[in-house]
Amino acid sequence: MAPGGNIYQDVAESRAALADYGVKSANVEGRNGPRLCGSAGGRPGMASNSAVHELLECPVCLNVMCPPIHQCPNGHTICVVCKSKVQNSCPICRQELGNIRCLALEKVAESIELPCKYHFYGCLDILAYHSRMRHEENCKYRGYNCPYAGAECLVTGDISFIVAHLKADHNVDMHDGYSFNHRYVKPNPHEIENATWMLTIFNCFGYQFCLHFEAFHLGTAPVYMAFLRFMGDENDANKFSYSLEVGGNGRKLKWQGIPRSIRDSHKSVRDSLDGLIITRNIALFFSGGDRQELKLKVSGRIWKEQS
């Protein structure tokens, strides 16, 4: 904060200036964080001094800053994560941030207990600096990443927000029910790169599930893969099972598994091969005809395991 400045005025000015950098004043997760969790590692209660917390609030992401804390020559501070987002330029006065550390504020941050940054969305834990970052990495109140695999989408939020986002921004099909029957058609079955097809969302048992179907190379062999992900945490995902089936010309391939949580990245699930794998030759055989067009019908069912 500049000498003689006012913290509230500085924050307001910084938020107005952020538009020049293309940076939002609060991330999507901050506005739409998940609301279902019990977290461990801290104690519930009120943090020490709200004025101190306001002093420690980063003007870009609005989270309480943890060391290292950077400052510009005028004394305005910013967290290390957001420093790169504003191209190393102070969002308040436009001075170059450089590598100046605010050691006094870092000492303050290390000496007090701070709320989890997801406290607005239900986490009641108050933690010392050294345990806070570790807690936040695993706090179940943290947002879910958008599960859409066809683009580098960085949106995060709670499940209801993510579902609405998938429908509005990615035009994802939505269906109700525990069984499904989908047909995938591709005029050029020999095109594998950038041939990701996804995504269908199913509302089932009061939860949402993502059905992925895509093409990629397994080693040098082109394959297709279908798998299901659960829109929630792993402990809830493990309560369900699902089956997938694809076939043609009197033959069938079947798969049964447990849906993976969307906490697991799309790539990690795909690379683990935890789903129905179909080689291109078999896929073309199932498609029938002259093998010049891919026509696959994938059917499946979701059920809840008895506890």
From TrEMBL:
GO terms for biological process: protein ubiquitination; ubiquitin-dependent protein catabolic process. Residues 58-94 form the RING-type domain. Gene3D superfamilies: Apoptosis, Tumor Necrosis Factor Receptor Associated Protein 2, Chain A, Zinc/RING finger domain, C3HC4 (zinc finger). Keywords: Metal-binding, Transferase, Ubl conjugation pathway, Zinc, Zinc-finger. GO terms for molecular function: ubiquitin protein ligase activity; zinc ion binding. The keyword Chaperone does not apply. Belongs to the SINA (Seven in absentia) family. This is RING-type E3 ubiquitin transferase. It comes from Cynara cardunculus var. scolymus.
